[in-house]
Amino acid sequence: MTGDTSVLTPSQEHYLKKYLIGALINSELDLLQKNPYATLPNLGGPFDLKDEHAQSTTPFLRYLFESVVVPFPFLAGSKGELWPKLQAFVEEWAKIESGNGIERDEMVRRRRMKAKAERTMVMMYSMAVKTVEQREQEKKDLASPGDHATTLEDSFGQFHLQQPAPAELPSVSGPSTVIYGARINVAGVKSVWIRRHIREHEHAEFLVSSKLPDGRESIVARRHGQFRRLYASLREEYPRYEFPLPPAKSEVKSGSAGAKAAHEKDRISLRGYLHNLARVAPEIVTSTIFVQFLTKDPVTLTADELKDIQIRAALDQHRAEQQEKFDREVAAKVQELEGHMKQVKLDLLQPGGVSRLFDAFRQYENVQDLPPLYQTVFEWGCMNFASTLYHAFTASDDAALNFTQLKRTNMLMPYRTMWGILKVSNPMAMMKGMMDLFLAQPFGSRSLMQRIISVNLQEEITEYKKDIVVLETSINDPALCDKIRNYVYASKEVVSQIIPEDRPYDITQLGLVMDVLKSDAIQPTLNPAQIKRVFDAQQQLEKDLLEKLARHQSMDVDLSDSDSDSETSSIASTEEGSTRRFHSSSASSKKKAARAKQLNLIRQLQQLLVTHLRIRDKERMMGLVFQGVTGEIFKELISIFYQPLVQVYKSANVADSLMDVKDFVDELIKIVEQVDVNDDGRSGKPSTASLYLNLVRKHLPSFYRFVHSVHKQDDGLFHDLLEWIESILTFLRTGYARTRINYKTEEELRVSVDLKSFVRNNVDQSQWAELEQETVALQTYFGQIKERKREEVREMARISSSSSSVSSATPSVEKITVERDHDRIAKELKGMGLQQEDVDELEMINYSDDDDDDEAEKALKMPKVPVIDTLKGPFVLLMDKAVFQLARE
């Protein structure tokens, strides 16, 4: 306690306010998530037409909804037909969400999405609603902006566009990437000849080098088919995870003529595939299957293989240098912009500054006629976009997959037909033609829109169906398989008899399989022998898991000593390896094999359940997207956005612009297909990076012509959008959705709450000491979160540095660099008028605490604050008087 005149310090008041806002928003989100259809009227606006002045059970969400969502320019033009349909859509969505459970990864994803939404809203309210002391400090900062302005001016370009990669560092996605402590690289390729009948055939074996978290280093040779078997084994062992599909073999085996490095595209794509597998979860990196793939049967490199690895390392380095060359050129443009930035900032902050910016787009027909500053900005944009294309389709390990998806989508787009429809002069006929093109279902077949959306998922769905056939054949018990499937497609009433909880549950739990099979609510009913078969398998599984844990704890597991097939489960492989190590009898080996078979049964039943679930969810979502109320909402959105689309259609030559897009994508595909991955920069040919840059520069005039045409005849569309964005910024700055002026002092009104009086009026003096202790605990808790976030950033910097074998940076240097960048950005944000508390809120917006069960003990726990919890109700009344009432005026 600081004395009788002040219950809490200004910093403690801030964290008290933040906690109350966060707790109340969390409860409102829980209410909306649990029963969205019944909660919608509490959001007000179009959902509460009967009594707009009624007290809402979700006042924080209601204020943001009425102040931010409803005024959106396009939605403001709705005649009220959208919202009832949206309510019906939410009701249908709620039915799907209350289905028969979800996968664990999806549960974690939803929790994190909710947490991020909560943090975003807490950040908005914390910035908008300040205490009296914070507003006073704000006035002092605005009265002396000189220091902040200088700091902001000196590093404006670096703040926005700083490129962190020095010339000597390879790309983070390159050969030495460290993922969960493991460094994995497909370093080279060797050719082997295998005789089939009479002739010999050449096959490629990829040299996979790795350094595991425990320090072991290995180099193994793996065929392309072994990567596919690794995928199948991981899916069988870990059905709760979704693994990326292995890349297909490249049609080009040797790149250009006379290439030094054969199968280079395959090597790059397989390296990216291993990285993506490792990123699925830390559990995968340390799994027996993955470790055996990286370490079993190591090879000794020959002189030719060492030379091949050196050649490919040079190619990797050249690609990294090309990426860094882009970065340096972009940084040079930033320096070029820096001299003009002060004038541009001052102009934009003046009334009508944004309008003057868009007036330039209206006035100048060609990009070459723009003022020098804007031309420099466009040039920087070209280089940045070209750098992105180069990374996505050439330098990245996922380049082959990205390119395949691009070609597939481009092939399906009916550009010529769309061009003919867009050429129709009647906007209504144009819109009808476009809707008919994408939504028509001739003879009951799928519409074009359905095909475009589902084509990239079809391969995965086909794999799921194949898995089901294999699993059902292996299980060899139609009753067990039918019961699992019937559970997945059972009604909510039937499922509630097995799992009575209303909240989503993890459907990947092994115990759920037994609950389903023992239930009489799901047909068919199993006989005792079938139940015993599954029960015995489950009991043996639990026992084997305990044995496996004990072996790991005693370091008695030899991960490279098993010669079992790669598709056998990791536990079974470990058991067989242990049997060989200890020279067990033949009878013991047979028992181990029987246990593996039982274990395989329970794993297969679990995977069958999960696979049916994935197919069911896709079917339900497709039905929701393309049938019933969703179609009505889609048509309503078309009508809402129709007027703005017509404005764009009238002012710009959309048809020709569409063909410009087609030409750009076609040329991009040709460039990617012609790229020589074996180019080391010494052939005298134009660099791959320059090809991308020339492509973007070539099409820049077409892009600017479209922008100019749209702005030339704008009659308010962009003005309304800018006003809406400005209203959000006004709320963050003042707490009001619209600027309010005190006409006596001509000062901008800003929301402030007197927490000192609030605490004195709502907390008994005998509890002040306890209240102070609770606020100190909150201050410590939020400080720990902030420090953990910064430590994550420092750790990422350390890992990035350690992934390079040529890096000379030390962890201490990296830490100093990270801290310096953090301090610089904080100063720049303060120079924009933000206080330290606002900077902290922005820093925490992307903080994600671990939701994994293994990390539960490490997670920070919110302290118990019983005295502060009693202030939730009074705080809502305080906010209602200060802010919420304005939404009802």
TrEMBL record:
UniProt protein name: PX domain-containing protein
Domain PX: 184-301
Biased composition (Low complexity): 567-576
SUPFAM superfamilies per record: PX domain
Matching Pfam families: DUF3818, PX, PXB
Segments for region (Disordered): 556-589
Single GO molecular function: phosphatidylinositol binding
